[in-house]
Specification:
- This protein is mostly helical and 285 residues long.
- The protein contains twelve helices and no strands.
Length: 285
């Protein structure tokens, strides 16, 4: 069951990343975050009511609030990076966020093994190579790499915080609901400030009603991935769950190759691959 839920996490996260990045090429990233997460809030609210999740309320939900504040920043940075592309480079780099839970373990007294040290070196090498020949000279490429690393840190922090926010299935529903409500509140405020500064919240043709199913999918797939990962980590070894869940960039890359016909430079593909290998080593150590 651990493997099944962890692999489901990879598929859901990978497809959500692909959908979010694709939508951001037509709709402002902040709008994608707010709308997709608002849909997730509505669905999660119904689930919490149906399962009696309110009974699990407690001080631990502050971890969910913190995750909700970090999440929009990470998603916004990641969707912007995906919009700059290519997805086959950005998505694997985003997976190195697993280093954050590893860092939390170090603070709590754990010591990294040899595989984790190797993983750190491999992941850093992947970051450098993923920029390709234009890493030094192309502002867009540098911006994409910087945004991806910011998103990776945020995603790792969210994983660590959500893990502390619940210990039961109903508690997980409530924690995810609180996280998403905070996401929408923070993202909505940022969107309001952005609009007041003159940045349009919608494309010139207006609200993309035709994209509403895709927005719903992105929000719900992201929530479902958080849920399946938490279940996988609770039911079996965290290392197994983390390794299998960290394969989601492969799903994004395959989707980008299949639907967008993306082709990567050899050095970029090598860097993306190294980052993914480093992630697996970090989670396995």
């Amino acid at each position: 069951m651990t493997a099944l839920f962890a692999l489901a996490t990879s598929v859901l996260w990978g497809l959500a990343d692909f959908g979010g990045g694709l939508l951001t090429r037509r709709v402002p990233a902040l709008t994608v975050v707010v709308v997709s997460q608002s849909i997730a809030v509505a669905v999660l609210g119904a689930v919490v009511v149906a399962t009696g999740g309110w009974s699990e309320a407690g001080p631990q939900l502050w971890f969910a609030v913190a995750a909700g504040l970090v999440g929009p920043v990470a998603m916004l940075a990641f969707y912007k990076a995906l919009a700059l592309g290519p997805m086959g480079v950005v998505s694997p780099l985003g997976s190195i966020g697993v280093a954050v839970p590893v860092g939390v373990g170090l603070v709590l007294g754990e010591r990294p093994g040899l595989l984790q040290f190797v993983g750190i070196l491999v992941a850093v090498a992947g970051v450098c190579l993923a920029g390709g020949p234009q890493f030094r000279g192309a502002p867009v490429q540098r911006q994409a790499i910087a945004l991806t690393l910011l998103a990776a840190f945020g995603f790792g922090a969210v994983m660590a915080l959500i893990a502390e926010a619940s210990t039961t299935l109903t508690g997980l529903f409530l924690a995810l609901f609180v996280q998403r409500v905070t996401n929408v509140a923070a993202g909505g405020l940022a969107l309001y400030v952005s609009v007041r500064r003159g940045t349009p919240a919608l494309p010139m043709e207006g609200f993309p009603w035709r994209a509403l199913p895709a927005l719903a999918f992105v929000g719900l797939a992201d929530v479902a991935a958080n849920g399946t990962y938490s279940i996988a980590a609770q039911q079996g070894p965290v290392t197994v769950a983390a390794v299998l869940a960290s394969l989601y960039p492969v799903v994004t890359a395959v989707a980008a190759r299949g639907f967008l016909r993306e082709r990567l430079r050899a050095i970029q593909a090598a860097g993306a691959g190294l980052a993914l290998v480093g992630t697996v080593l970090l989670a396995s150590g």
